[in-house]
Amino acid sequence: MDDVRHGGAGLQGDPAEGENAKALRLRLPAIDGTVRNRPLLGVSVGHRLRVLAALVLVIGLGLASRKYDGVFPRVLGKYPGDALWTVAAYLGWKLLVPTMAPRKLGLAAMGLSFLVEFLQLYHAPWLDALRGNRLGHLFLGSTFNPMDLVAYTVGGCAVVWLDSRMARPARGRLPNRRGDQGEQG
To answer: I want to staple 113 with a disulfide (CB 3.0 to 4.6 A). Which of 86, 92, 107, 135 is the partner?
Structure first.
């Protein structure tokens, strides 16, 4: 009966378990058909949808950079697409672990990008068969190029900087207890 009084979290009603359970709430439709915005793993569903929309946009831009000339200045070559690959990895990690700090997400994205790049030095028949598929080639690439590592680093640093800036409150504004914009500081 103790678990019912504490919101079903833990058999003994441990307060720490109750806090963990609060972070796992879902968006549930109310009886009147409206949807209450409840966090899913610590962030709102709206936040996840914005990250997903950004991911779709980045993937589209990355694919367009490979298919069409003029999406980015020609002098940059294929490197903007490589930088966007890391940005997409960052957003993918952010969907999976939304409460992780931007720097850690950036390290995870750059680590994945570097791993895939160094994996291009390994040529097992089954791996080359995957790379021969269009989707496999997009995910795994085909030829190691050390300059790709520079592009991944630029993309990773740019998305960490941007995400960190977006997460901060505007300068000169102090948030108040109610979560309003606050007053000029």
So the answer is: 86
